[in-house]
Structure formats: structure tokens, C-alpha cells
Amino acid sequence: MTRSASGSLPRYILQRTLLVIPMIWVILTLVFFVLRVAPGDPVSAALGGKLDDEALDQRRAALGFDRPLIEQYWDYLSSVARLDFGTTFSDNQSVLHVVRDNGGATLSLTIVAFIIALMVGVPLGLVAGRYRDSLPDVLIRLFGILSYAAPIFFVGFLLQAYLAKPLGLPTSGMATPQTIFNVEEHTHILLIDVFLNGNSIYIEDVLKHLILPATTLGLLICGVFIRLVRVNILQTMQSDYVEAAEARGLARRKVTWRHAFRNALVPVITVIGLQFALLLGGAVLTESTFNWPGLGQKLVDYINDRDYGAVQGIITIFAVAVVLISLLVDIVNALIDPRVRY
Amino acid sequence: MRKVFKALAKPFTETAGLARWMLVIGIVITAVFVICAIFAPLLAPYGFDQTSADGVQFVKREAPSGDHVFGTDRLLFDVLSRTIWGARTAIEVVVLSIVICVFVGVPMGLISGYYGGWLDRILLLIMDALFAFPSFLLAIVFAFLLTNKLPSGGFSGVLAVSLSLSVIYVPQYYRVVRNTTVSAKEATYVEAARAIGASDFVIMRRYLFGNVVQSVPVIGTLNAADAILTLAGLGFLGLGIQSTEAAEWGHDLNRALADAGSGIWWTGLYPGLAIVLLVTGLTLVGEGLNETINPTLRRRRLLPVVMTPREGDR
Question: Which residues of A are less than 8 Å from B250 in CB distance?
Fold first, then answer.
């Protein structure tokens, strides 16, 4: 077989990258039409009652709502292409600024939650899959189902009601006002800034605020990892090469570690990318539960203000992020698993 | 009729041991909630928005006691009653959204897969985009739009949330039905039907529909668990169903959260447990069905074979 027929790596990456453009276009079109066609008038929804009719008309003209829909659509697409995601109606801020000011909080929350989920979920899944139908398997599976079945805000409620006080952990916000005031901003991500500051009191304060929200969000994703790793172990343990390894007389331990586990973990990387979508949804709820000043919390605030401009901008950024992350995951996958490239 | 029973019994006959137990437990839990939903007016001691009985107003945030087994919350509602009525809301929303999904997704998938061409391409593109989008965010956006759009009061909250849920699940029904249609339409029996002059509509309805519809119950049960969580999530954020329209567990938990710090546990614990139980039940059913249908996971019971010696062998 020639190289090109089997699909070389650069070629696959190029193809996959080019595919991003139509994907983003379709999603943007959906976002635009869904948000623009459904309501009567976004400006009066956000500002009705606060301004008189003339001022409302001015705002409409300024935002371009008096022009034909197709022109507005073109404007929207071209401004997104210039990385301009519009402005909010209610407090007239650039959406990019909103993202910069609140995105760091969401990012640090989700990354820490993800690490917790991986550290808990993957080992449990391996054990459950390796010892199928044993007592640990039953318990671990039950834990997996429960951690998925318990809504984030319920886990958050339980932690706040029963654990927070005995452990002395804060349940609201990202840090005490004192810490936020005293730690100077470098990166707009408090978790990094506080380490740059180096004062151990502030570091402890920030970490303490992080524990409950990150655990709550981590538990949600951990169930997914348990299920996934377990099923993959079950399937690889039945595969021919594991049987062949056993038939060659390799020790059971060696077979499971070197042959089964490694291959069973490859799909986990794919799913990490897919979990990003779940994580975003979960982050919105976690932030709401723990009053975490992130992007999800901000989105809910803007929704309550009926601010279509902000909702459209933030949703657009989320959509683009999801598409780009799935691209990244596919490329990483192609690097790890040559079968993907075909 | 016998075929239907056989199909219904299949998950039981094809599973053994643990898998069967999980399936049975799941069905029992789900059945309990369905009974609560149907007989809520009889089972619940009070109405979901009742704040007084016999002319006496309930006490705010009363701890569990004889009159209020699960206590009362900050709006004076009886927690036990709202937990039971919440089952009705949850089941209503899930059933309604699955019905909408089936009525939209199945015909769309059939037509798209059968005719192919540009219609197929466009539908695929839209559905894939919807599927790629973070589903909870999608539900938030649609609940936000629909609650603004629909007149408030009565059933509209339930309808708005059901529609928002349908939007996030339709792509799955569409995809599965479309792909089965694409492979089934090449089969010999479809060709034969075409040869005897059956119209496209007849082929889709009589020949393809039955083939394609089999996977729908599995998607339905798997999505139902997720739908309960999404519904509760929307309620928690205050989107969709308002607390005077119907009892909704997520919305109740939102109100309970403010009390969590001051040691009031009963307002949140019971609605939360209800969600966990129902979702667990539905997940067990879904997983049980999946294990019987997905052959890579299936492990059949080994039937003992008894070889009795024949008379002539002696």
C-alpha cells in the first residue's frame, strides 16, 4: 500500500482542520437564526421599561436591528471572523471582556475538576473491569451510576449542608474579598495570580474555596470515566491479542497491565474531548450552586436580564471552543492511534 | 401479540445474574415513580401549592413532624407533597419530550435516509451541529427563548421545557433512524415492494418503519434519565417551570440551597433524593436493555446440558 492511500498524518490533520470551517459556519448560522428569529425584539426585551421609545429606537439603530436580516447575518459572521463577539445590551460591555474577566474562573474550576475525575475515575474503572461481577465491581458501578445520577446542585447542597461547616470550608465565591483585593492581577486567572503573589495565606484561601466546587464537578465526570474505562477493559480483555498473550504463557498480571490496560485507555482520550461539552454544562450549574464568578454564572445572569447580545456572544464563543477542542482531540487521537487516520 | 410479549421478555430471558437484577431493580424504581406521578392527588397529603390546611397557615421551614412528614420549606409548601407532585411534572415532561422527539425525529430520519440527496445533506449538517453543541447549554438557550415566547401560566412551562429537551434529543433519533433506513432501503424486500409498484409512502410506512423503529425504545430510556437531570438543571437555574405552576425538584433545590448553611436539610434532601432515585432507576433500565442488545457486552447464561444415555446404548 502506498503512503497516500493509507492516509499520511499531515494530510489527515489538514483535512480535519479544513472541516472545522464549515462546522463553525453551520453552528454560527444556527445560533444566529435561533436567537434572532424567535423573539420579537431583543432591545426592548433587555431595556424595555428602562428607556423611552425614542432611546430604544436609537439603540436598535445603533445595534443594526432595523436593517434586513440577511445583512445582520453577514455582519455577525464577519465580526465573528474578526474575533469580535459583539457587546452586551444591558451593561454595554464587549463580550470578549466578559470572557476575559470571567473565563479564568471557569477554566481553573473545570481543569481541577477534570484532574480529580481522572484520578478517581480511571483507577476505579480499571479495577471494576478487571474483576468483573465481583463485589468491588458492583460497588464501583453503583458509585458510577450514583455520581452520574446525582445532579450537581444536589451534591453541592449535601456538601454545603453536611460537610462545609465541620471542615471549615467556604461555600460561596472564589476567595475572600480581602484576597481578591490584595492579589494583583497578572493573568486574569486568580488561581495563577495567587501563586505568583506567593503569600501562603492567600494561596490557602483560594485553594479552600476551590475544594468543594471542584469536587462536586469532578464527581459528575468521574462516573463517566468509570463506565467508559470499565467497558473498554471488558472489551480488550476479550480480544484476540490478550488471548494470544495468555496463550504464550505470560503472567496474568503482565497481560492485564501491558496488553489490556494500555489499549483500553486510548478511547479515554477521545472521550475527554467529548466530556468538554458535559463539563461546560456542569460548570454552569456548579458555578450557580457555589456562587462561583465564572462564565456560566455570568451567562445565567445575562439570561435573567434577557440580554440577547450577551447570550449570543457567550454561546458563540462556547460553540467555537467546542469545535476547536474536538479538532484538537481528533489530532491527538490520530497521533496516538494510527487506525484513525484511514 | 405473542411476538410483543416475547420481545418484552427478551431483556429478562437474555440476561442472567447481576444484569438481570439491575434491570429488575431499575424497573421497580421507575414503576414507583410512575405510580406517584399518576396518583399524586391521592398520595400527596396536600396540593403542591397549598400553604394552609383547615384555615390554618403552615409554619415556615418547619422541621419534619407529624403533620408534615418531610417538613415545610421557605414558601410554606409541604415538602412531601411537592416531592410526590414533582414526580408528576418529571414524568409529564419526559413523556412529552420523547413523544415530540419520536414524532419529529423518526419521520425526518425516514425521509432523509430514503430520499437522500441535498435534503439529506442539509438535515445531516443541521443535526450534527445540534449534536455537537453542549446539550445543556442548548437546552438553556431554548428554554430561555421559549419561556419568553409562550404565554405564561398553566401548562406552558411544562411545554416550553419539553420542547427545549426535544431539541437536544431529536438529533439522536434522527441519526439512528436515518442510518438504519439507508441500509434497509437496499434490502431485497424493499426492492420487491418497489417492483410491485408500491409508492414511496407505502414503502416507508409498511416496509421500512417497522425495521427502523426498533432502536427507538433504547434511545428513549437512555435519554429519559438524562432528560430528568436536564429538567432539574433548568429548574435549578429558574428557567421554565415556576414553583406556582407545578412542583419541580430542581427549582425546589434552588430554594433549598439558601437554607443549607443554616442547618435546614429537609427542604433539599428529599427532592434531591427523588432525582437521584429516578435517574438511577432509568439508568439501570437503559443499561440493562443495552447489555442485552449490544452483543459485545452480552454474557449469556450457560445452560447446563444433561446427556441422558439412550436405551439402546446400554
Answer: 151, 153
Over A67-130, what HEC string results? CCHHHHHHHHHHHHHCCCCCECCCCCCEHHHHHHHHHHHHHHHHHHHHHHHHHHHHHHHHHHHH
Question: Quick one: closest CA in A to B225, which residue?
Answer: A149
- Give the distance from residue B311's alpha carbon to the nearest chain A alpha carbon, in angstroms: 42
Distance in Å, alpha carbon of B228 to nearest chain A alpha carbon? 9
What is the share, in percent, of chain A residues with pLDDT greater than 70? 89
User: What's the pTM value of the predicted model, to 2 decimals?
Assistant: 0.84
**Quick one: pLDDT at residue B147?**
76
Give the range of the structural domain holding residue B157, as residue numbers without chain letter.
Answer: 2-46+83-300
How many folded domains does chain B comprise? 1
What is the predicted pLDDT for the residue at A2? 41
pLDDT at B12: 65
ipTM value for the complex: 0.82
Determine the Cα–Cα distance for residues B268 and B275; give it in Å rounded to an integer: 11
| CATH number for B257 | 1.10.3720.10
Q: Per-residue pLDDT averaged across A315-321, rounded?
A: 86
Contact assignment for B275 to A150 by CB distance below 8 Å: yes
Chain B residues with beta carbon closer than 8 angstroms to that of A161: 260-261, 263-265, 268-269
Nearest CA distance, A23 vs chain B (angstrom)? 7
Q: Which amino acid is at B132?
A: A
Say if B76 falls within a structural domain: no
In a domain, residue B56? The reply is: no
pLDDT at A341: 61
**Domains in chain A, ordered, with CATH?**
2-81 (no CATH), 102-306 (1.10.3720.10)
Give the position of cell 465491581: A137
